[in-house]
Amino acid sequence: MASETKSIPHLEKTANSQQLIVNGKPFLILGAELQNSSMTSAAYMDTVWQKLVDTNINTVLGCVTWEDIEATEGHFDFSELDKVILGARKHGLHLVLLWFGSFKNGISTYTPSWIKKDVKRFPRAHLRKAGGLLQTADVVSIFHEEVLNADTKAFSALLRHVKEVDEAHSTVIMVQVENETGLLGDSRDGSSNANKRFSESVPAPLIKHLSTKWDTLHRDLKRNLQVFKALGKSSGSWEAVFGKSQQTDELFMAYHYAIYVEIVAAAGKKEYALPLYTNVWQNYVGDDGDNAFTVVAGGGGAPGDYPSGGGVSNVLDIWLAFAPSLDFIAPDIYLNDYSTSCAKYRHLNQPLFIPEQRRDDYGARRIWKAFGSYQAIGTSPFGIDTLEPTTNPFTKHYGLLASIKDIILEAHRNPGSSIGFFFDELLPSGHDPSPPTVAQFGSFSVSIQRSFVFGKPAPGAGMLIHLSDAKFLLIGWGFQAVFTSTSPKSTFTGILRFEEKIVDPETGKLGKGRSLNGDETRSGKFCIMPNEEPDYGGFPICVTIPARTMVAEVEVYSLEEESGDF
């Protein structure tokens, strides 16, 4: 029987971020999100639990839908959820519940039928179309209290029930409040109530926050607010203060969405104070785009192409300030540059969690950047239940991460002690799209490059951890590390010791493997962490060994010679 005295899952401050604490210990989420509606059926989940375990996942993200738990207003049914929680617990998995309440992907399709049908009690948002026409949107309007009150009651009931059935076990470790909130199809709600609010004075707390916190605002928000600084107005309607633009519309929606979600989140947190967050559908068409898809397919360009008012970087500060019951705002990363997104959502030292991302090799390689460079508390590819463990790239990545999770968590408590990296496939032209990663640790600079082979270089990924002085831990495959002393007096930098490490599966401690030298260092030039099947390019001597444990420790040294030594 689990002890009821154990603290519930919570976030704990570190030097420049936070760590998730589960059962009293720091926890690294090696997560995966199910297809949208998979967790509405415990019977279906019984067919996939073991598959998730075999993929080396430790945390499953899945929905709890408003339409399922409150099909009749005021009558809650958690029987299916209870079976799901028991199924996860039986398989040693944790859960992050995704509350599909008023909003899922910018619309309201998971609301109960009594919400959908009663447009007078639960009015819809209206989209402004050409010629002054208004179109009824498939989403409730946030400028009416009835739907907010109903959502708040339902979410409170959910958290209250989870506490009753799971507090002693901590199967459920976090909850997502709504999903990809915002308005699609227009930059703001054009309904009469929304128009009334838009013409009213901008709330004083918002003006004060933007004015007093200007120096710490995200650069993307500052860029949109330059007209605000130019106008110099501290009161008036939204357009009087911020000017007439889609960005003003987006700011208006962001403030009111944040207030809406805050009320829901705060009520739930009173019932059971688990970590809460909301996720963000990003603008896929911008200076950080990483895709070749059309705006229609990707969802980006202008507010309304992506959900206007959601927590994108140019309104992130609004969400952080006016939805304080959320512990962080989390980016979904599909078609944006991964590293840039990670950096944006570490704004003001909030913890990084990636609840949705690509599930292919391209996406899997990038999680090392999140864990190694941005102290992520977790990552989560989407649609995991329709992949098999034997072909899922995350099986390999998560397997290695699981074996050294305690080492990574310790590095996260020491800011600047680690760096993550990845190397993608060469382009058909032969061009390498992945430049070396260069960083400085103490008195040494390191260049992390694609692994040497005589034939075609393969993709790679991993992280480097600075242990102490001249000692480093190398984790991953398909790369090599070249060390150089930063001392201007140094005449030579070399490898003192390079040792393969074996991870004890029970304790996570590192034991000694092979002592690496010679070909494994290209005769002392660099430390190679090879791929599992290096391409020898027809060369008759197999000078690059295949990867084995994918963990190694290196100690480097530097010489400083006087002129008389030559």
From TrEMBL:
<dbReference type="Pfam" id="PF02449">
    <property type="entry name" value="Glyco_hydro_42"/>
</dbReference>
<dbReference type="Pfam" id="PF18120">
    <property type="entry name" value="DUF5597"/>
</dbReference>
<dbReference type="GO" id="GO:0004565">
    <property type="term" value="F:beta-galactosidase activity"/>
</dbReference>
<dbReference type="InterPro" id="IPR013529">
    <property type="entry name" value="Glyco_hydro_42_N"/>
</dbReference>
<dbReference type="InterPro" id="IPR017853">
    <property type="entry name" value="GH"/>
</dbReference>
<dbReference type="InterPro" id="IPR040719">
    <property type="entry name" value="DUF5597"/>
</dbReference>
<keyword id="KW-0326">Glycosidase</keyword>
<dbReference type="GO" id="GO:0009341">
    <property type="term" value="C:beta-galactosidase complex"/>
</dbReference>
<dbReference type="GO" id="GO:0005975">
    <property type="term" value="P:carbohydrate metabolic process"/>
</dbReference>
<feature type="domain" description="Glycoside hydrolase family 42 N-terminal">
    <location>
        <begin position="50"/>
        <end position="201"/>
    </location>
</feature>
<keyword id="KW-0378">Hydrolase</keyword>
<protein>
    <submittedName>
        <fullName>Glycoside hydrolase family 35 protein</fullName>
    </submittedName>
</protein>
<feature type="domain" description="DUF5597">
    <location>
        <begin position="394"/>
        <end position="526"/>
    </location>
</feature>
